[in-house]
Design brief:
Strand order of the largest sheet: 1-2-4-3-5
CATH class of the largest domain: Alpha Beta
Mean pLDDT: 97
CATH architecture of the largest domain: 3-Layer(aba) Sandwich
CATH topology of the largest domain: Rossmann fold
Shape: globular
Strand content: 5-15%
CATH superfamily of the largest domain: Leucine Dehydrogenase, chain A, domain 1
Radius of gyration: 21 Å
Number of strands: 13
Largest sheet: 5 strands, mixed
Bound molecules: NADPH dihydro-nicotinamide-adenine-dinucleotide phosphate
Low-confidence stretches: none
Helix content: 40-55%
Number of helices: 18
Distance between the termini: 24 Å
Length: about 450
């Protein structure tokens, strides 16, 4: 195992996020490799870490003052052994090859866990949408799609949203794809309801995470009702995590953005959540404005000189990191444990550092890795693809009940795989093993391609 990790690091020494994601998976699948020595002969690990295709392109666009800007666009087509590439597009200044490869790698196993026929991919740009007008966003999305369109399609690669890419961006991207191809197809998911989107898709990642957390609590005969919760982020995933937590009787104390976080001891209720949705999705404002409206809450500015995030220092029962990768450090993990947190269910992708995960596992709290607990988003994207190809639209209740069923089944799959391979109750090992076995068997069935 150390050989393959060394090989990967020597080949691409600067891709630290990608290394982190690969090391986590490969360490936990060792018992599978021991059981099936044929995998080595087939160079399965080497094949898994080499994307099937990496596309990098120039995106030139003009701002409202007539100034031209140049960004980098990417699409990582990681693995198509169980279906067309599927995974979001991220627009954020931090985007680079390492981050997108880590996200694409995670996506391969996550998609396998959903039981739907989707391979794994990811893409995006280092474009920063913050402070840009609608027209600038539109021009950027159009320029991005002018290159991407030739590499994607409903049976090839179906992108969706991620950080910085929501319904507005999907609309502009779809419009340009349609014009270039002269076809109206299910090439993107996360579309608006009036033109091919699925009910419950915006809610799916957050709702799915809460459904997963409820399943985990049930294994310890604990209800979600009455639990106090810390949630980070205030975008798509965070908003609908809070909504479902409130629906199920939990109390949410925090939300954040990259500038800072709010702590509301009285709890964020439905009215306050509506304010946040308008603030973030329509006015595109900052979370600090929450305390101007609700004076009972306290705002704390982010401080990048700290090696911990004070959001995780509050006393609570559960934590739902829903902002970005590596947002829970080792120090944060100790603070969570010392403040009686019994469950961490990841809405974001890889929000916990390897040191933090080790602490969660050592302390035997309920810990769900994002590739299991946030799989509800891509699962409903898969349902959107199915509805698009049948040209029908399922009612809200049907999609929600399918989502619930899928989250329940992922939970069981993780538990069963963890028990079968000697680490009962370790959701991280279970998710990695179950996803890995499904993908690898498909690769072997399809020969050396
Ligand atoms: P959004 O863009 O809607 O929201 C992201 C939120 O996280 C914002 O509040 C943003 O603050 C904050 N954030 C982003 N980057 C940073 C950073 N470097 N430091 C601190 N805060 C940050 O994205 P989503 O809600 O869609 O995605 C959140 C996470 O969930 C990501 O890890 C994503 O990969 C994952 N995910 C999303 C899915 C989906 O369906 N959307 C599916 C599965 C996983 P600010 O506005 O200041 O940037």
């Amino acid at each position: 195992m150390t050989d393959i990790i060394r090989y990967m690091k020597n080949r691409d020494p600067y891709e630290k996020e990608f290394h982190q994601a690969v090391e986590e998976v490969f360490e936990t699948v060792q018992p599978v490799l021991d059981r099936y020595p044929d995998y080595r002969q087939a160079a399965i690990l080497e094949r898994l870490i080499e994307p099937e295709r990496v596309i990098q392109f120039r995106v030139s666009w003009m701002d409202d003052e007539g100034q031209v800007h140049v960004n980098r666009g990417y699409r990582i087509q990681m693995n198509s052994s169980i279906g067309p590439y599927k995974g979001g597009l991220r627009f954020h200044p931090s985007v680079n090859l390492s981050i997108l490869k880590f996200l694409a790698f995670e996506q391969v196993f996550k998609n396998a866990l959903t039981t739907l026929p989707m391979g794994g991919g990811k893409g995006g740009s280092d474009f920063d949408p913050k402070g840009r007008s609608d027209d600038e966003i539109m021009r950027f999305c159009q320029s991005f799609m002018i290159e991407l369109f030739r590499h994607i399609g409903p049976n090839t690669d179906v992108p969706a949203g991620d950080i910085g890419v929501g319904a507005r961006e999907i609309g502009y991207l779809f419009g340009m794809y349609k014009k270039l191809r002269n076809e109206f197809s299910g090439v993107l998911t996360g579309k608006s309801l009036g033109w091919g989107g699925s009910l419950i898709r915006p809610e799916a990642t957050g709702y799915g995470n809460v459904y997963f957390a409820s399943e985990m609590l049930a294994t310890r005969d604990e209800p979600l009702k009455g639990k106090t919760c810390l949630v980070s982020g205030s975008g798509n995933v965070a908003q609908f995590t809070v909504e479902k937590l409130i629906d199920l009787g939990a109390k949410v104390l925090t939300l954040s953005d990259s500038s800072g976080y709010i702590f509301d001891e009285e709890g964020i209720d439905k009215g306050k959540l509506e304010f946040i949705k308008r603030l973030k999705n329509i006015r595109r404002g900052r979370i600090r404005e929450y305390v101007d409206k609700y004076s009972e809450a306290v705002y704390t500015e982010a401080d990048s000189s700290l090696d911990y995030n004070p959001l995780w220092s509050h006393r609570a029962d559960c934590a739902f990191p829903s902002a970005t990768q590596n947002e829970i450090s080792e120090k944060d993990a100790y603070k969570l444990i010392n403040n009686s947190v019994k469950l961490v269910s990841e809405g974001a992708n890889m929000p916990s550092t390897p040191e933090a995960i080790k602490i969660f596992l050592d302390k035997n709290i309920l810990y769900a890795p994002g590739k299991a607990s946030n799989a509800g988003g891509v699962a409903v994207s898969g349902l959107e693809m199915a509805q698009n190809s049948m040209r029908i639209s399922w009612p809200k209740e049907e999609v929600d009940s399918r989502l619930k069923g899928i989250m329940k089944s992922i939970h069981k799959t993780c538990l069963d795989a963890s028990a079968e391979y000697g680490t009962p109750g370790n959701y991280m090992a279970g998710a990695n093993i179950a996803g890995f076995v499904k993908v690898v068997n498909a690769m072997i069935d399809q020969g050396l391609v």
